[in-house]
Design a protein that fits this description.
CATH superfamily: Rho GTPase activation protein
Shape: globular
Number of domains: 1
Helix content: 55-70%
Radius of gyration: 17 Å
């Protein structure tokens, strides 16, 4: 029951660390623009840095830092090398996008559940953040919007050791490739909550 209350995606059985869901909610609730990913990250290179940071309120900047650290320190690649190459090949095939979406969805089904769920959560998040940034900056031209948001795919591609073109495509078409999880409108993460150390372990939402 406690896990259900804590989980803002309570109708979806996501095999992802609980803190990752919290981080994404904090970012989207408090600072729904991609500029938050440009800000100087909280320094958590050493265990002591993380210990001190965890005593502070969970802010959007800290949430971004935790998210980046999580991706950088994954023991295995989020998108397995062989499947990464297969997705890249599909993206570069001269097929209509609709066909590409179907092929990519079929490939992603071959990923471990934890990889699939984490990808869905992250790529829909990045898609929403970039879209929200454009919505809140109506004076930008299409090209400048694209340029403004391009650093997120570059950053994520570097962190998860994937091809930038692949990440850009998955973010751009996230709503076509991934099913959006059912969310609870009443369950929101408090900006003043602290992240418990236990939530940083490989605990999953069940």
């Amino acid at each position: 029951e406690e896990a259900t209350k804590h989980n803002p995606l309570q109708n979806d059985d996501l095999a992802v660390p609980r803190f990752l869901v919290d981080c994404i909610n904090i970012i989207e609730q408090a600072h729904p623009q991609d500029s938050v990913y440009r800000q100087e990250p909280v320094k958590i290179k050493q265990p002591a840095d993380l210990e001190n940071a965890l005593k502070q309120p969970l802010t959007p900047v800290f949430a971004v830092s935790l998210l980046k650290r999580f991706l950088k320190e994954l023991p295995e690649q989020l998108i397995p090398t062989e499947l990464n190459s297969a997705i890249f090949k599909i993206i570069n095939d001269p097929n209509p996008d609709l066909n590409r979406f179907i092929e990519i969805r079929n490939l992603i089904q071959k990923f471990p559940k934890s990889n699939r769920d984490t990808m869905r959560l992250l790529f829909l998040h990045f898609h929403d953040i970039i879209h929200q940034s454009h919505t809140m900056s109506p004076t930008q031209t299409s090209s400048s919007k694209s340029s403004e948001s391009s650093f997120i795919p570059v950053t994520i591609a570097t962190l998860i050791k994937s091809k930038e073109r692949t990440i850009k495509y998955l973010i751009q078409h996230a709503t076509d490739i991934f099913e959006r999880p059912q969310t609870s409108s009443t369950s929101r993460v408090s900006l003043i909550k602290n992240v418990s150390r236990s939530s940083l372990h490989s605990e999953t939402i069940e």
